[in-house]
TrEMBL record:
It holds the Pfam family HAMP. The chain crosses the membrane at residues 26-53, 334-356. Residues 360-413 form the HAMP domain. Keywords: Cell membrane, Kinase, Membrane, Phosphoprotein, Transferase, Transmembrane, Transmembrane helix. Coiled coil: none annotated. InterPro entries: HAMP_dom, HATPase_C_sf, HATPase_dom, His_kinase_dom, HisK_dim/P_dom, HisK_dim/P_sf, sCache_3, Sensor-like_sf. This is histidine kinase. GO terms for molecular function: kinase activity. The keyword ATP-binding does not apply. It is found in: Cell membrane. Its EC number is 2.7.13.3. Residues 462-676 form the Histidine kinase domain. It is an enzyme of class 2 (transferase).
Length: 686
């Protein structure tokens, strides 16, 4: 009784979640067969089907291994029969009777090539080579005499034997080279201190020459014999015998090392020199049992078949392997199980649907009520249950619930309308206040700017008046000096001309200063200007400051365009920028001047002139105020240079900008418009 009580209590606890919801009880009733029966049947099917599928794969690889072994035996027999036929042929007898020396060697060389053998040797009664397809073998005692001794007794023999490096080298250096294989690191292989494999696996046969105490021996080295192993793979796995995504492979092993294989590396090339896993090696080479199971081949899993190879003394010396990639078959197995799963799921779903149809008349209305309550709780007051198909207590409950929701929505809409009107009034007052603040701020800024411009105008007018008088005296004296000197002034005419130009430039600067006092009275003259020439003139005028400041100049002219601008205004801009760059490099540095074509923001053709230094750059706090009047970071500056440059650039339709360079220093760029016709007419810039 106590046990039954505990069981009953456990059962009630398990059913407690179902008792909380009618919907849960009906859903459980409908889906219980699917939830319990389907996993059990699926597990049974997967277990039985998986075992049967693995047995089928093992059966296939056993058949493949049998085909490969049969072909290997047939090759051995074919080699033996070919040797026996040649030993009994009239061609060999005729060659031995020829008076010319080495006639037998020529015949053996030709027959070895036609039979696909690496060598053919004719041995005397002491197993010494008297004729050979390999000239280096003459006089050699055959390294593996057992096959020759068996043939001397009248028995044709075909054997597999392992030849040492010295024995291979005695036959032919090329055979020694082919047998040398560098071992590759192979995870899971038997631990070994070897780094190379030098032995050779030879298939050789011998037959007695009738009527003579001679034996004919021929052999083929299986190390790196890719043609032989490819023939086995094509025979075992012909085109279409495996799924498109699978691949078959074949391998010959000497001991546990691959000496000929069709298995390739991911980056190309065959994995000759890799080794078989320790588990396979122990079963096949250690116990002499065939391996028919899945095994890791280099980096992939293959369904594999291995069988031992034995030499003339019956010793296990290597393995013959065939196998195919396992993954496509595993995918096919899971695909078949998936199809069965889908079919079974459809069947179970159909059965559950029948039960579900009877439960929907109750679950549907309850679910609609629950969903409507969730939507209302989330803020959707327009959600409704709607009309139910049945006329029962649930339908009356739904109609009453919808009426309550409609009343609640009407009250909420009224509150939202009142709140919206209040928010609109607040927003309107806020916009009016923001507009008033903006107007006041703009007026303050304009007043401040007007006051500064007025001060600048007064200063400019006074300065211009004071400068014009000495400039007039200088200009008059220059003309008088040239007139008095006459032809004696010829050596200094370039300097006089330069002085006149600079006097004119002073007058233009004075005119610009007067412009800030009386802008409407200013008028500038335009001419075609080569940027390179203006740069050169500017450098000439600041030559003293550059020499004193140890400044190197880098010129980068990448444009042939011609500007339509006021030459002296452009020169004034460049001189200001160059002097600023020199002052930014008090310890010396590199001044970079460049000119290159650059379209404007509106797509107009234009020219960008840049002046760059490798000084300390511009402080981020100063960047936004660089072009403000009277702003300067120098202790002796006036703060008008960059402001004047900006005004000159803007009057020419251009833009002046400043930025810091990633490698250090600052760069000032002046963009000026350049009409296409002027660019075409410009001079080439070297």
């Amino acid at each position: 009784m106590p046990v039954l009580g505990r069981v009953a209590g456990l059962w009630r606890r398990l059913l407690q979640p179902l008792n909380r919801s009618v919907r849960t009880r009906f859903v459980t009733l409908a889906l219980l067969p699917l939830a319990v029966g389907f996993p059990v049947l699926l597990l049974l099917l997967a277990g039985w089907g998986g075992a049967a599928f693995e047995e089928l794969l093992v059966f296939k690889v056993r058949s493949d291994l049998a085909v490969a072994a049969t072909y290997f035996e047939r090759v051995q027999n074919d080699v033996g029969r070919s040797i026996e036929a040649l030993a009994s042929s009239e061609a060999l007898a005729d060659a031995r009777r020829q008076p010319r020396a080495r006639s037998s060697d020529v015949l053996l060389r030709e027959r070895a090539r036609s039979l696909g053998l690496d060598y053919l040797l004719l041995l005397d009664a002491h197993q010494r080579v008297v004729a050979a397809s390999l000239p280096a073998s003459l006089g050699l005692r055959y390294p593996q005499p057992s096959v020759a001794l068996a043939a001397s007794g009248g028995t044709q023999r075909t054997m597999l034997d392992v030849f040492s490096p010295a024995q291979l080298a005695a036959l032919s250096p090329s055979l020694r080279t082919r047998s040398h294989i560098v071992l590759l690191a192979t995870p899971g292989a038997r631990p070994s201190g070897r780094r190379v494999s030098d032995n050779g696996l030879l298939l050789h046969a011998a037959a007695r020459v009738p009527g003579r105490p001679l034996v004919l021996v021929g052999g083929v080295l299986l190390n790196r014999n890719l043609e032989f192993i490819d023939r086995i793979r094509r025979l075992v796995y012909p085109q279409g015998s495996l799924p498109a995504s699978s691949r078959g492979s074949a391998t010959l092993f000497l001991d546990d090392t691959r000496i000929a294989t069709t298995v390739t590396q991911p980056r190309g090339g065959r994995v000759i020199g890799s080794r078989v896993s320790q588990e396979v090696s122990a079963q096949v080479l250690g116990r002499g049992q065939a391996w028919l199971n899945r095994a890791r081949v280099v980096s992939d899993w293959y369904v594999s078949g291995y069988q031992p190879l034995r030499d003339s003394r019956g010793q296990r010396i290597g393995m013959l392997y065939v196998g195919f990639l396992e993954q496509p078959f595993v995918l096919a197995k899971w695909m078949a199980l998936a199809v069965l799963f889908v079919l079974f799921a459809i069947t179970m779903a159909a059965a559950a649907w029948v039960s579900w149809r009877f439960a929907r008349s109750v679950i549907g209305p309850v679910e609609r009520l629950r969903q409507t309550m969730s939507e209302v709780a989330a803020g959707r007051l327009d959600a409704r249950v709607g009309t139910l198909p049945q006329q029962d207590e649930l339908a009356l409950l739904a109609a009453h619930f919808d009426a309550l929701l409609a009343r609640l929505e009407a009250q909420n809409q009224a509150m939202l309308r009142w709140a919206g009107e209040l928010d609109g009034k607040v927003a309107e007052r806020t916009r009016e206040l923001a507009a008033a603040n903006h107007t006041l701020l703009s007026a303050q800024q304009q007043l401040f700017k007007s006051e500064k411009l007025a001060a600048i105008g007064q200063l400019a007018a006074g300065t211009a008046h004071e400068i014009n008088n000495p400039v007039a005296v200088i200009q008059g004296n220059l003309e008088l000096m040239q007139e008095l000197l006459g032809e004696a002034a010829a050596p200094v005419l370039p300097e006089i001309r330069l002085m006149r130009e600079q006097v004119q430039r002073i007058r233009l600067i004075v005119a610009k200063l007067l412009q800030y006092a009386r802008p409407s009275e200013y008028a500038g003259d335009l001419q075609q200007v080569q940027p390179r020439e203006v740069f050169q003139d500017s450098l000439l005028l600041v030559g003293y400051q550059m020499n004193r400041g140890n400044i190197a100049v880098v010129k980068q002219w990448h444009s042939s365009a011609t500007l339509l601008a006021n030459r002296f205004e452009l020169q004034q801009i460049l001189i200001n920028l160059i002097l600023n760059a020199i002052q930014a490099m008090p310890q010396g540095g590199v001044l970079t001047l460049s000119a290159h074509d650059a379209p404007g923001s509106d797509g107009r053709p234009g020219l960008r002139l840049s002046v760059a230094d490798n000084g300390n750059g511009i402080a981020e706090a100063d960047m936004a105020r660089l072009f403000d009047p009277f702003f300067t970071s120098k202790h002796d500056g006036t703060g008008l240079g960059l402001w004047v440059c900006q005004g000159l650039a803007e009057r020419s339709g251009g833009v002046i900008e400043a930025a810091n360079q990633s490698q250090g220093g600052a760069v000032f760029s002046v963009w000026l418009p350049c009409e296409p016709a002027l660019a075409a007419a410009g001079l080439a810039v070297l």
